[in-house]
Amino acid sequence: DQQVKQNSPSLSVQEGRISILNCDYTNSMFDYFLWYKKYPAEGPTFLISISSIKDKNEDGRFTVFLNKSAKHLSLHIVPSQPGDSAVYFCAASARSNTGKLIFGQGTTLQVKP
Amino acid sequence: GAVVSQHPSWVICKSGTSVKIECRSLDFQATTMFWYRQFPKQSLMLMATSNEGSKATYEQGVEKDKFLINHASLTLSTLTVTSAHPEDSSFYICSARVGPSYNEQFFGPGTRLTVL
Known about the structure:
The structure holds 2 protein chains of 2 kinds. Chain A is mostly beta strands. Chain A is built from no helices and 11 strands. Helix content of chain A is about 0%, strand content about 55%. By secondary structure, chain B is mainly beta. The model of chain B has no long low-confidence stretch (mean pLDDT about 90).
């Protein structure tokens, strides 16, 4: 049972345009959501997070939006840069579950110069 | 940010042998460490949660006798894959959490295990 889903395995955008990565979840107990960036043969690095009490969090070029009613979150990167090319994972956590992270399958983003 | 290292970065072993993977927090003490496994083009799957000085908590479907976890200090956790088989070939990643905040969880670079 995949509790966190990233239905788009890949995304390609032009440099300077907006990248939108989507993530859906099924467990209503999740109360914290995170996005990680991962390069091949490396561990994930934390990008940005959002608590379920918010619907938006912004950090520089990265903004995460949370729609609790739809159980959907998205990561916006604007403007996209070639260095953003990587695999992006969304993850969810529930305080009631000792805070362990449940990851989506990942979306490979390619930003073309 | 904080640094988490893993050793070895890759290992090839024969079927039936045991392999130990180390996860170290280099510049901080980790109250909790996690072990994940990632198959190609799939998600990171949590295998177990390791707390210093206590037994690891394994996720459903993960054999605790096959994947031995030891968290002997606040900076070191080890995962031993016992009697490895080709289906155990995967990318194993650890993470270390320094406090209760979720973004204070730092990931290691991963270990590629190939069992022949």
